[in-house]
Specification:
Elements: H1 26-39, E1 41-46, H2 52-65, E2 75-81, H3 87-99, H4 103-110, H5 116-122, H6 133-136, H7 140-149, E3 151-157, H8 162-165, E4 170-171, E5 174-175, H9 177-196, E6 200-207, H10 220-226, E7 228-230, H11 236-249, H12 256-265, H13 272-286, H14 296-301, H15 312-323, H16 340-360, H17 370-383, E8 385-388, E9 391-394, E10 397-398, H18 399-406, H19 413-420, E11 431-432, E12 450-453, H20 457-461, H21 463-492
Parallel strand pairs: 1-6, 1-7, 2-3, 3-6
Antiparallel strand pairs: 4-5, 8-9, 10-12, 11-12
Helix pairs in contact: 1-2, 3-4, 11-12, 16-17, 17-18
Length: 493
């Protein structure tokens, strides 16, 4: 019998295909759609972990496709991209794929800025110019055919803060030419859409703590003031929908006492949604993929609740279960609380990555030790994180770059990939790109594949990674001090 589909995505955002499981945001979806209908552009801001990406991918976009968005056409072109290290290239890739145009030609056109994106859209079969001879001379059937092909243009710049966090885009307060041109193009596109009332809609999702840096881009602060939507924190009844409704829709069950406990134990501040979604995905797994009703005993098995809250029968079940676990896991249950579930999960992967590599990754030939595997994990995650103006943020790096930093002849990029694969598995999804179940090819990554931590909640909630980050920061500070002292010595020589 096939396993039920897990309705909780863990640390990654909801996808459009998972919109049926995306709950608790109905009011906010309607508010964003209304704002887009009126203003053509919306900058969705909020704290890290407030679910901005999910709100668009699993909320706004599916509702638009379903007809709950008053626009010119029935069809939608979704040109979504992340800035990453090459924002113009990524935007051009998405536009060319959606408009069925040559990538190189689109990129050259977009680099001109101003109205170039609008021009590409207007010249495509997805836009109807009602003043054109083609439309004026068309009969009813021909007009019907043209309308059936036409589509509204929806441009999504997800993770907009990457314009500020990547040095290729923004360094020492100064934006790169590519970043500046890309943002100027998007804002100019919005301006033209507003003036000409075109079926073009633009959405940015951005961490609110980066708003102050928007002054580096002409016009961006004004657009934020014109059409910002700050994602509200979920109310108790909305959190209840987030927790309970997906399980029911996927054919599973969650006890009322577990639902209430999760809400009560959820702490204020960052990471409410990532912590709860990750916990729910693990609860689903430990409850035999939804075959058992998710209950308090399953949360205790995840080190998310102390055993004193269990009934006598559940305590006996847990005691029997814990005896069957590896000895190294025992230490993770000393300070059981909801925020510890993510930390425990990451620690277990850290401890078991070598054994997964040894048993599963036969294609990476080198023989490595358990210490080698842990070194690879440490260097990889140190490389995948950085401190930006006191904020812990993701740092996208390639397998080749990580391998070069390790700098050992006996450790190839294939070995690095193999060791990190356990963090990419469907039920773990801590690092992107993910391994797709039943698709063996996704296990193998090229040296130039860029890796990325799924969510910054991992940086803030995995104690070992926080320790590594502190160690890395201290080493960097020591190096900077050494450079200063060396320069002083050279000057006085």
């Amino acid at each position: 019998m096939k396993d039920k589909v897990c309705p909780y995505p863990g640390l990654r955002p909801f996808s459009e295909e998972e919109s049926i499981f995306f709950k608790g945001r109905d009011l906010h979806i309607r508010q964003i759609i209304k704002q887009l209908e009126e203003k053509k552009i919306t900058i969705i801001t909020g704290a890290s972990g407030d679910g901005k990406s999910s709100l668009v991918y699993a909320g706004v976009i599916p509702n638009a496709r379903a007809g709950f968005f008053h626009a010119e056409y029935n069809n939608w072109l979704i040109c979504d991209f992340r800035p990453e290290r090459a924002p113009m290239s990524n935007l051009a890739q998405s536009v060319s794929e959606n408009l069925n145009l040559d990538y190189a030609e689109v990129k050259e056109e977009l680099k001109l800025g101003f109205s170039s994106l609008i021009k590409l859209y207007k010249n495509s079969p997805f836009y109807i110019d009602k003043d054109s001879n083609e439309w004026q001379n068309a009969d009813n059937e021909e007009k019907k055919e043209l309308k059936s092909k036409a589509a509204n243009l929806f441009i999504l710049a997800d993770q907009f803060e990457e314009f500020f966090t990547n040095p290729e885009n923004y360094l020492n307060g100064v934006p790169s030419e590519e970043a500046y041109t890309t943002i100027n193009l998007l804002l100019e596109t919005a301006s033209i859409a507003i003036i000409e009332n075109l079926p073009v809609y633009i959405v940015f999702t951005m961490r609110s703590d980066f708003i102050s840096q928007s002054v580096a881009f002409t016009g961006l602060p004004e657009f934020i003031g014109y059409s910002q939507f700050f994602v509200p924190r979920l109310q108790r009844n909305e959190l209840q929908q987030v927790i309970e409704d997906p399980a029911s829709l996927a054919g599973g069950k969650i006890s009322k006492r577990l639902s209430e406990t999760l809400i009560n134990e959820l702490k204020d501040g960052f990471d409410q949604l990532p912590v709860i979604q990750h916990t729910l995905s693990q609860l689903w797994s430990v409850a035999r993929n939804g075959d058992d009703e998710m209950d308090l005993v399953h949360l205790v098995k995840l080190a998310g609740l102390q055993t004193k809250y269990l009934t006598e029968n559940d305590q006996q079940e847990f005691n029997k279960w814990i005896k069957q676990q590896d000895n190294f896991k025992q230490k993770f249950y000393g300070e059981a609380e909801l925020s510890n579930v993510l930390n425990t999960h990451a620690n277990i992967l850290h401890e078991t990555a070598y054994f997964y590599y040894s048993e599963v990754v036969s294609w990476a030939n080198e023989s490595i030790t358990e210490e080698d595997a842990k070194l690879i994990i440490k260097v990889a995650f140190q490389s995948l994180t950085k401190i930006d103006k006191g904020r812990a943020v993701r740092n996208r790096v390639s397998l080749r770059e990580i391998t070069d930093i390790i700098n050992r002849e006996d450790i190839s990029y294939e070995t690095v990939c193999g060791v990190l694969n356990v963090f990419r598995l469907p039920n773990n999804n801590f690092v992107r790109p993910y391994i797709v179940q039943d698709d063996i090819e996704t296990q193998y990554l090229s040296a130039d594949t860029v890796l990325d931590i799924t969510h910054e909640a991992l940086i803030r909630n995995w104690g070992l990674l926080s320790f590594w980050e502190t160690e890395e920061k201290e080493n960097y500070n020591d190096f900077q001090d050494f450079k200063i002292q060396l320069q002083r010595w050279l000057n006085n020589k």
